[in-house]
């Protein structure tokens, strides 16, 4: 099995290294990751300037390790089209420092790495831990490796990709398949002034609670690891069917 690993925290991230050391149990490891952190870069693809790539050995037994002056989506695209001559069986993006839950996945570079794999019809996974300071990468990597091993044997669809999130704990309560939550923030923009008294805007905010039952955010808060299957096709088929009855002739 050939496994491509990327992330959005940059190739020097400990989460990527711990993940690679675990996934090597399943097959050949190829690492193509951003040179610099790309958090909240979503599915950005670099079209307006050239990209650079250079070897960056991790010394964990990988077949190839490259750092790229681009985004996670860039890394996966380049790996598939240029860097790796063998067929890639699985793409894994992570392990991300911090959660990628609910509709926050729209902004996530980690999830974008997995999405790019799915766009190219490769079974793909995004992995995150719900902590920014001291995430337990070892637990997430160990359990994720078991999840990936099992799902790769039973999931037939190559265009479904999976978003996996872990609570930051030494022992998870269990594993839940979950739908995405709605993530709502208050005080989303801080307005300040720089030393020259020019106004600036800093996007952030405070997350609001509670979460709906059965969602990834709710389960992670309760100590569960969550798995959410996602699709590339974002078509609202219910609305499409309703609109098919509307006469828009002008």
UniProtKB/TrEMBL annotation:
Residues 3-186 form the Survival protein SurE-like phosphatase/nucleotidase domain. The keyword Cytoplasm applies. It catalyses: a ribonucleoside 5'-phosphate + H2O = a ribonucleoside + phosphate. Coiled coil: none annotated. Its cofactor is a divalent metal cation; Mg(2+). It is an enzyme of class 3 (hydrolase). Belongs to the SurE nucleotidase family. Nucleotidase that shows phosphatase activity on nucleoside 5'-monophosphates. This is 5'-nucleotidase SurE. It comes from Caldisericum exile (strain DSM 21853 / NBRC 104410 / AZM16c01). The gene is surE.
